[in-house]
Specification:
- It is a single chain.
- This protein is α+β, with helices and mostly antiparallel strands and 224 residues long.
- The chain folds into two domains: 138 residues, no CATH class; 52 residues.
- It is built from six helices and eleven strands.
- The strands form four sheets. It has a five-stranded antiparallel β-sheet. Strands 2-5 form a two-stranded antiparallel ribbon.
- Strand 8 and strand 9 form a beta hairpin.
- The two termini are 35 Å apart.
């Protein structure tokens, strides 16, 4: 179900994303070959069928968890530490591994190629996250991590909308009505945020984030 949702997103090729996936998300690091040769189901008798299929003996798609354990591309790759953000007890550092994978399409054949970023918490090695992205292959891992760990900002936006403008104060039975209420809530929140920025005044530079060595620019949040 999750991979089918990704496939629907990927139909719009102009939409780039970085999403966290479960450890059961499947794909190939080395995609198998596809053949167009005819085949017969009954051992050579009957009407033959012609359709794209995997070559006989091809390895099935495996989960990203098994890729990390058994695939040399990830298993033998050294962990690289990145400073993700600063917590109440100091900097939070995650170790990462990166490779490109191929996921199945609607027919079960090798489809689009995605980034796979495996992140492990240095303070708690049992905490492992898996991120995939359809960004261009030359996209740096720092950029993928910055987007992947920015989920809390989106959640904070919805939390503020619920508290300040009543996003959760809606009762109805139709999805269209919910969409209209969500649009009005987003516009109201945008208006409030704009007015608040005007009253606070413009900052002299880019938005900054706290760091262990003083204040640092947002673009330098992730440091290998």
């Amino acid at each position: 179900m999750l991979q089918s949702q990704f496939l629907r997103i990927l139909n719009n090729r102009e939409q780039l994303f970085v999403g966290e996936v479960p450890r059961t998300f499947t794909g190939w690091i080395d995609p198998p070959r596809v053949t167009q040769r005819r085949f017969r189901r009954d051992g050579g008798h009957g009407r033959s069928r012609k359709r794209p299929r995997l070559v006989s003996g091809s390895h099935p798609a495996i989960s990203v968890e098994k890729m990390l354990k058994y695939s040399p591309a990830l298993r033998d790759q050294p962990w690289v530490g990145y400073h993700v953000k600063d917590g109440q007890k100091g900097p939070i550092v995650w170790e990462t591994k990166h490779t490109m994978i191929t996921i199945k399409d609607e027919k079960g054949l090798p489809g689009i190629q995605l980034h796979l970023v495996v992140a492990r918490n240095m303070l708690d090695p049992e905490e492992v996250k898996y991120f995939v992205s359809n960004a261009p292959p030359e996209t740096p891992v720092q950029t993928l991590l910055l987007v992947g760990f920015s989920r809390w900002r989106v959640e904070r936006c919805f939390e503020d909308q619920k508290q300040e403008i009543g996003l959760d104060q809606w009762e109805g039975r139709r999805y269209l009505g919910l969409k209209r209420h969500l649009i009005l809530s987003c516009i109201s929140y945008l208006f409030l945020a704009t007015v608040r920025e005007q009253f606070r005044g413009k900052k002299p530079g880019a938005h900054r984030l706290p760091g262990p060595h003083g204040r640092r620019l947002a673009r330098s949040l992730l440091v290998a």
